[in-house]
């Protein structure tokens, strides 16, 4: 697995790429350049990781159970290899998780499942229940349901989460959701924001005009919210 680091100090940002994206996408799209003033000033340090979405949720030839098992392997890679590596490069006590599109799902899911490791989540143009079909975006698990699926769909498990110790840890995290008003996932974001509110999560929910699901919009969003 490959990753790219931008910056020398500041808030460590674990940056997940968009759907089936690569670790170099944010550099190629100008997203890193959009943050260059803050990076050069030592305010933030980006750790742009790779994805294996084509082996997990977008792997149409694999059985859904296998897709989930591969996803959990990816989560272990992030928690057991990437986060310790970040600690060797950055003195931040806590880490910010961020991402666009499918990367927003990964950022939200990993931070909400391991909240003691993160202090902020920034999710742009995300989808937080991959089992719910939306327009031409299908159920990514083809109707398959299990406890593992449930425990990896933020909208589902946050709705029913009653563990007060875990909720208290999550309430310490600054959560930022950003979505375009005509984005197909707007309703998903709205429902997720409502769920966070019901659970006492102080969070920001920013609605942008139009679709806003593109590199051009994300390059503006990161400068405002990361």
From TrEMBL:
InterPro entries, A to Z: AB_hydrolase_fold (IPR029058), Esterase-like (IPR000801), Mycobacterial_A85_antigen (IPR050583)
Signal sequence residues: none
SUPFAM superfamilies hit by this protein: alpha/beta-Hydrolases
Pfam families named among the record's database cross-references: Esterase
Protein name: Esterase family protein
Organism listed in the record: Mucilaginibacter antarcticus
